[in-house]
Amino acid sequence: MAPAAGDEDIDLLIQDVVEASRRPPKARSTNIKPTVANLTSATYDRGLLPDALNELIDVLTIPTFLDQGSLNAIARNLYPATRVSRDVVIRVVACLGHGRLKASLNIQAALLRWLILIYHTLDSPSVLSQAYHVLFSLLDTAALRPQLSHLLALITRRKHVKPFRIQALLNLSRRTGNDPCLVGLLRVFKDYYPEIIVGEAVRGKASAFKHPDPLWRARLDEIQAAHAQSTRDLDSGPLHGFKVRRPVNRAQISKLVPLVRTSHANEVGQFTDSVTLEEVENASSLALNIDKLELPNQLVAVLADPLLQKLLTLRPSDEAYQRVANWLDAILQDVVAGNADGDTLWDIMDVVKDFVAQTKMLPPVLLNFFVRFFELWDGTGRTESLFDILPFAPFRDFQELYQHIFQPFETAVLTHRTHFHGALLTLYTNLLHHWTALLQADDTPPDHASQTVGALVRHVNHLALTLIQASPTVESSSAILDFYEAFVRLVTDENLRNFVRIELPPGSLIYTLFFSSCLANKSRLCYILACYKRGFEAAMATRTRSDGTFRIDALSYDRAYVNLYNGFLMDICNCLWRARAFSDAETNAHGCMVPRPTIDALTSYVSTVDRSFTLASLFGLSHGPTICYQSIQRVRELEDGELEKGATIRARHAGPVTQASLVRLATSGGLNLSWQDYRINVLTSLSDKGLPGIGELLKCTMTVLKKTMEGKGDGGQRLSQ
């Protein structure tokens, strides 16, 4: 990819600086300081691509004729736009130390500080681990000691903590009067071997190893994010999560959760019987040592550490999660007793939210914590985290979950926020998605699968009715259909459909959604009902098993239940296809559940508006408020297509289309189109535009239409018991 104009300017400035660095100041034709100022300003704005960074690293690590002020300015503004390569780190480490060909100690300190700043962007952090002995040997250089101690604290693992290093560090600390940097590094060593390093050695004032420059780090993150977005660099994404999380600058919320620290590990001679998490560097290391990995001191670190999360997923431990639950209980009790503020509790909830989002599970022992939490919670505070946590509830009896978890949660939330019905519906939709994933992962779903899912759907039926009445908007209808589409994916799954019974939405909800003002929602509803049709047919074709295994079969649905569903199909077909809207004359038809006096009043009103209209035909493809535009537009497209072929069309259809108007159109020199072909063209056009639901429902309901559109004879007008 060709460099952007800004990158070309940086390259030109770097070439000027490199050229000037090779000449003594008196041999230069111009002053280099303005060029360096322009370069540092440009790198702050855009960052450095790998080639540009390599050239500047050469300028800093190899003795040149540039003055110390210019070199320091360049070192302070080395903002890499991408991840930093292993080669760059090796060259920086190689320039450390004493000697005529080494960089000055000031520049070495600046480069060590830079390594700390960009540690999280290293392409291969293990390179610093491999150079540990080189870095450790330079601790006796006072000018480099603060930066070296900080960098060593970042990269130290148990394998680095050797007896000779402990002794060397203790001796150096005594000689330097307990230098705070060395005491801080000793404390890191003590985390790994507390029984070796005695307390007196680390009681002095120690360096906290705070981040050198949070503002610099923030600017670096902005530069790398902008570069990743502009180049779509997928390698700039999140870390793989196969290393212990060691943030350079811990945010306030993260301080509430301890980092992974493993103090005790069994060792026999030079061989280890156990391995600590801190020693794992990649997926291969985790796989090779999975059986020997020791759990850390504080298991609550699992809430924020991705590697520990993976370990407890692969090696489940109820005791571990019980310790986490006890820790959460302690936080809750502190808040109740007034020993901690409410923000602390909600900060912890944010951490738990991230944990369940990463692990895709809410362990039962943590679920018990929420039982106690909802007994005390009044519904106030930052509830967003709870809406993200609860959808990961385990797959267990919904009535039990509702009694202890969801009902108290609903009551508390709706007490202060009566408009949260939509958010609750989204919560249950996400819960159903999670349960579907769990069921698909099981070889054989549990016996209570149908009962549990059915109880959830029946509860959402009532919630959806409340929502559609309180907020009859397109957004509300769309949220309701999201849930039923999630349920459709469950009951049409090739393996799960035999274990989960179809639960129909309430009739009033179906008709409210069908007569909504949104064509997309109407199509989605029709597609859902069409999928139910296939689910019913699969059940009717299933024989009862004699081995006692629970299966959804023909006996799972009584005749009245099937007739109820057939009535929904009949009413929708009457509206869309047969021009018999609201008719209840046919078997099983519900007349869209509209009272007969209301139908009589509407019929009389329509006749007073226009005698050519009838109420029964006003909801078809030609006259329906949500479909009429698409219908006449399809006729226009057919007419334009004939004109492009060279045909002569003397008259265009004015709309709306009827069977009689098509006959008149053909006789007056217009498009020759039959009534059946017109309606099939409309359905095909809707499907091509991403609205296949109406056509799918009509095809699966009417045999003649299915034969015409697909040339297949399967399917019938309604289901039989």
UniProtKB/TrEMBL annotation:
BP GO annotations: CENP-A containing chromatin assembly; mitotic sister chromatid segregation
Keywords linked to the UniProt accession: Centromere, Chromosome, Nucleus
Superkingdom: Eukaryota
Pfam families membership: CENP-I
UniProt keyword annotation of Mitochondrion present: no
One Gene Ontology term, aspect cellular component: inner kinetochore
Predominant localisation class: nucleus
Transmembrane segments: none
Keyword Isomerase recorded: no
Compartmental location: Chromosome, Centromere; Nucleus
Family in the record: Belongs to the CENP-I/CTF3 family.
Name of the protein: Centromere protein I-like protein
